[in-house]
TrEMBL record:
SUPFAM superfamilies: Dihydrofolate reductase-like. Pathway: Cofactor biosynthesis; riboflavin biosynthesis. The keyword Ribosomal protein does not apply. Residues 34-241 form the Bacterial bifunctional deaminase-reductase C-terminal domain. Pfam families: RibD_C. Keywords: NADP, Oxidoreductase. It comes from Micromonospora fiedleri. This is Pyrimidine reductase family protein.
Length: 248
């Protein structure tokens, strides 16, 4: 599939040569220090979804980077809303990506981490029931008891009335989960931005106008704007732009 839409570097070191998987992995390498990396896809006019889902925005180049980012992370953080809506399945990687992780001294699979105030989560959803690694759910102290969920996931209570995301991330780091990839959704992104916890944003811009209706990739209460410098621009053969913005 990559031959149909090869990815090449536009900035800061332009080269028309297609990036192979090793070169792409180097561009999205793990940081030396703990970090929180967001990954989103959007349309040219800033939509978070097409017909309610992100799939309509995501072409092969976005999927290629999506898979790669999962390969290099320790934990995959996702909001309960996106997990439920997008019907997340078990977080499994193919043999090639597992071999890469073994070679780099990582656990064979990343750990799924779900953020939920309500604990209105289905323990039978494959993301939990079929997980190769026991998932973690970050929730608030006053969340309702959820014994069936506790049977398939570690419930971590952090924050009185709502999840304290800084405390939750600190707990992940205490467990050795330093490189955290967050796949959204928009309310979680807004809360992480407000708490100034976002170190990096990987953004795929699909070459289409979604039109009015869909929300943005961020939502919730407003928070102060923050600088996030551009680190690279890649261009795929289908016109998708792959941007990486990061603090460092
Ligand atoms: N374009 C993209 O790359 C992309 C990526 C992801 C999602 N999406 C789209 O985004 C839409 C889903 O968005 P959404 O509005 O449901 O937002 P969301 O952020 O995915 O989910 C909101 C829910 O997640 C939990 N949550 C989020 N932030 C929390 C926090 N700070 N503390 C505690 N719980 C928190 C809460 O769950 P509880 O109700 O369980 O408490 C909340 O109701 C879908 O259309 C999906 O396709 C697009």
């Amino acid at each position: 599939m990559t031959a149909d839409a090869p990815i090449s570097a536009l900035w800061p070191d332009p080269s028309p040569a297609p990036l192979d998987d090793d070169a792409l992995t180097a561009l999205y390498r793990r940081a030396d220090t703990p970090q929180l990396r967001m990954n989103f896809v959007t349309s040219v006019d800033g939509a978070v979804s097409l017909d309610g889902y992100s799939a309509g925005l995501s072409g092969e180049p976005d999927k290629r980077v999506f898979r790669l980012l999962r390969m290099v992370c320790d934990a995959l953080l996702v909001a309960a809303g996106t997990l439920r809506h997008e019907g997340y399945r078990a977080l499994r990687l193919d043999e090639q990506r597992r071999a890469w992780r073994r070679r780099h001294g990582l656990a064979e699979y990343p750990t799924l981490v779900v953020v939920s105030n309500s604990l209105d989560l289905d323990p039978a959803q494959a993301a939990f029931a079929d997980a190769p690694v026991r998932p973690i759910v970050l929730t608030r102290d006053g969340a309702p008891a959820a014994p069936a969920l506790a049977a398939v996931a570690d419930l971590v209570h952090c924050g009185a009335d709502e999840v304290d995301l800084a405390v939750g991330l600190a707990e992940l780091r205490r467990r050795g989960l330093d490189q955290v990839l967050c796949e959204g959704g928009p309310h979680l992104f807004g809360a992480l931005t407000a708490a100034d916890l976002v170190d990096e944003v990987c953004l795929s811009v699909a070459p289409l106008l979604a039109g009015a209706g869909a929300g943005r990739i961020t939502a919730g209460a407003p928070s102060p704007a923050r600088q996030l410098p551009l680190r690279h621009v890649l261009l795929a053969g289908d016109g998708t732009l792959l941007l990486r913005h990061a603090r460092h």
